[in-house]
Design a protein that fits this description.
By secondary structure, this protein is an alpha+beta fold. It has a single domain (13-148), classed as 2-Layer Sandwich (Alpha-Beta Plaits). The chain contains four helices and four strands. It has a four-stranded antiparallel sheet with strand order 2-3-1-4, sandwiched between helices. Helix 1 packs antiparallel against helix 2. The termini are far apart.
Length: 161
Amino acid sequence: MSKLTHYFSNGMPYFITTRTKSGSRAFEDAETARFFIAILQYFKYLFSYKVYAYVVMPDHVHFIIELAARTAVPLKKVLNEIKGNFSRRYNQKNNTSGSFWQKGYYDRIIRNEHDFKKTLDYIHNNAVKAGLVTTPSEYEFSSYNQWIREEKSSLIDRILL
C-alpha cells in the first residue's frame, strides 16, 4: 500500500491530528499534557506559525495551525520538529526510549469559514464526546476557554468569525 501524499500550501489553516504510539494514554498525566502545549508554543515562536485551536486528549492531539505564506518551511518539517522535540524530552524526563508518537500525522486543509467553525467546534467538544468532561469549559487541555472568554493568549490566534 502506498503512503498518502500530503498536499501543502503555506498561508492556509490545517487541521492536524497525531496519535501516541500504540495508543498510549500518556496525556492523562496533566504535566505531560501541559508540556506538549508548551512545546507547541515554543515552536510557534521559532517558526512563526499561527495556532487557532488545540485539544490534548489522552492518546492524541488535534490542532489548527497555519504557516505564514512567506515561510519556506514545510508543514512536515514543523510537525517533525514538534513531535521529535517532545519525544526526546519526554524520554529524558521519564527515563524511557523510542518513539512517543505513531508515525506520520493526519492533515486536512480548512478551505472556508464554515469548515473552520465546524473544525473548531469538533476540537473544542472532543473531550465532551470522549466522556472526559460534561462541558468543554471543564477541560483544561483545550483552547476552548481562550475562545469563549476571549482570554489573552500567546499561543492562540483568535480570528473574528
